[in-house]
Design goal:
Structural class: mainly alpha
Radius of gyration: 18 Å
Number of strands: 0
Largest sheet: none
Order of helices and strands: HHHH
Mean pLDDT: 90
Length: about 110
């Protein structure tokens, strides 16, 4: 007998993926807030004033992802394009953090 496997892109996997993105975005924002509270810029006199600007930018990106995907979870309206774009934004933000940081610092210096 051959067992049938559920398709990879079914409704359940869409819900799980969207919830994982929401949890990850919330976790990222919590880590940024925790770092800002435990390691304030004023305690480090040698740090430049714009040292945390990339963190602020990434926190805003994750906040937008959190709000959009969180609304999708709350209203129980899941869409593959929305979830895949959110996953791509979070992944690219993670992979290209150093490049984004250099770009932000070049704008704020």
């Amino acid at each position: 007998m051959e067992q049938e496997r559920p398709p990879l892109f079914n409704d359940r996997s869409l819900q799980v993926t969207t919830k994982i993105v929401v949890i990850y975005a919330a976790f990222y924002m919590c880590t940024v807030v925790f770092q800002l509270l435990t390691n304030p810029l004023e305690d480090s006199p040698l740090a430049p004033q714009n040292a945390y600007d990339p963190l602020y930018f990434m926190a805003v990106v994750h906040l937008v992802v959190f709000v959009v995907t969180g609304a999708s979870v709350v209203y129980k309206k899941y869409f593959w394009p929305l979830t895949l774009v959110a996953v791509a934004v979070v992944a690219m933000a993670r992979f290209y953090y150093n490049d984004i940081a250099l770009w932000i610092w070049s704008l704020t210096s």
